[in-house]
């Protein structure tokens, strides 16, 4: 294990910026934190509970160009999109979001690997940070995620006062320590729990057991507050569903992949007018089943990380943590 | 072309357009690049993403048989932005095609068996792929019975091929239209598809049934097939859920944890019974 003085950490970040690395970090704007590209160290604001959006877009942007084309006089020419290969460092990623990034790469790269996301992942270094602030919407601990976990990070920092305690997780992490070896000192292993937030456990995950609850009336009851606006999916660090749309001028255009939500009625609507998930309760049930049952069946991973963003953002007051707690009791 | 990039379509030229029914057309498509044509192959049951550049992509089955080389055909009804743009295409125009995607009808397992096809309306195209495939390998299969219905006589697709199908030995075709959909010249049956299935009393022994059409037609036909001795694992259908990517990522076609696009679209009835009824 290593440690680094905070003054050296600042020097390291500035040095990385000077060497041309793109650094994306939490930035405070009008009272809220957003992952944004930073030009200098002083823009970084690690003193946050939760960013409005997770860093999901670093791998999977909300709108992603799949290809461009020219179509003049019926002579179609396809122009492939070159995904930038410059190194990107995402700094200040909390364990919930890092966990979500590892889920996304597992999902997108395991089978029928997605070339765009693969290139981005290869060129991205995830710098995780132990979570120090949680609120009443946070429920990572209920999903067996600790606010100091390192899953999904390349290198992980824990604020221990004047210094950061540092764990290198991958080769990319080792590379950083190697490149700045004069700044890092050896450290004793510490108990990170003493330095992390500690959101209370809100439900017993083992007791949720969805399989037998597909036909339950609970889905209708719970979904009555749902407006079907999709804000939960757009703010979710693991939601991976997308739409494909063309945007064009008369003679050229672009094929785009855009975030989508299974909460929308149009998501499953057939051309015939038949809709397999015809009302909002079906769609709410699908959201919960996908995260807690289908992902587990397909990849062995629960695809909810307890970040609480969907709760904070819902205009109808849906609260997945309370809904899960209810599911654990029926 | 980067072989890893699954979103890049083949360029296809429209060779032929057939007006099938009101708002329904069939396109015959050929590869613009000969090398694409040479490396492309598909199996009955698979589908693709067809696109008009500037309008987007739409999902249809491949309606021609893999035994007919050098081209693929698709049949579609004009219902939205992409199908409207396809409808206004002319012979010679270039469209995009991604595929083939999905699993297949296991034709080789059916050698020696009788085949019953049940189709309604625009549910015939995916089965027409199998029909021609089977006819091109006619001596491998037993009797072939096709029950095909539509709302009105006008809505029947591939009418111009029916005579050709019947030229092959031991092929029986029963066409029907819903009550009120007949014309004075209509010589086929009048009645809903399930009632025609009941009338012809197919025998389930050593037989495979393939069914595709409106959910209501499938719902009322399945119990009849079971009554006539078709076991659940001898009944096949192909699901046509809304899709975007075609290979298990976009999430649109999910039924439970199953992706219709990659785990299907072909399902046996016994497999279908294990899924939540979200198709």
- Average pLDDT metric of chain B: 95
Provide the structure class of chain B: alpha/beta
If you compute it from the alpha carbons, what radius of gyration of chain A comes out, rounded to the nearest whole angstrom? 21 Å
Average pLDDT of chain A, rounded to a whole number, is: 96
Shape of chain B: globular
SS-based class of chain A? alpha+beta
Shape of chain A: globular
Largest sheet of chain B: 7 strands, mixed
How many strands of chain A? Answer: 12
Q: Biggest sheet of chain A, open or closed, and with what strands and sense?
A: 8 strands, mixed
Question: Helix segment count of chain A?
Answer: 9
Identify the most extensive interface between protein chains.
Answer: A-B, 49 and 45 residues
Q: For the terminal residues of chain B, how far apart are their CA atoms? A: 35 Å
Radius of gyration of chain B from CA coordinates: 18 Å
Which percent range describes the beta-strand content of chain A? 15-25%
Give me the count of strands of chain B: 15
